[in-house]
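Technical note accompanying the year-one report. For the benefit of new consortium partners, we illustrate the data format agreed upon in the data management plan: each record pairs a sequence with a structure-token string. No post-processing was applied to the example shown here.
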Amino acid sequence: MRDLKKIQKPKINANLEIIDNVEELLQLIEDDEKICDKLIENIDIPTIDESRVSFDSCVFRNVNFENCTFRYIDLMDVTFEKCDLSNIDFSEGSIFRTEFVNCKMIGSKIEDAHLKDCLFKNILGDYSSFAFSKLNKVSFESS
């Protein structure tokens, strides 16, 4: 058995601004190209189609994404905890040092994406597609 390289954990800032209002989050996505140091929790994000949005040092907790499209998304140092990402589209995105823990990801599209140092733990991901994606140091545990 060969040794696996250690996956780097997300580097999350200790002082995160809490966002628990969907209108505030949608305004941030509309106004800013890069969203940093946010704790987004307990909200439902309605169907949204955004390209080239970037999240850095963010935590999503108990967030439901309802058929959202985030093509060319840039996720760096992000954690998704107990989120519903079913049918989400992260195609052609860059996903680095990101963890998906206890998430529902049925039918997710993460195609033609670049994933590095990613952990998928306790994921329900039936019918998800990673076609043509580049995976480097990616782990699927209990999924």
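Partners are asked to follow this layout when depositing records. Helices lie at 22-31.
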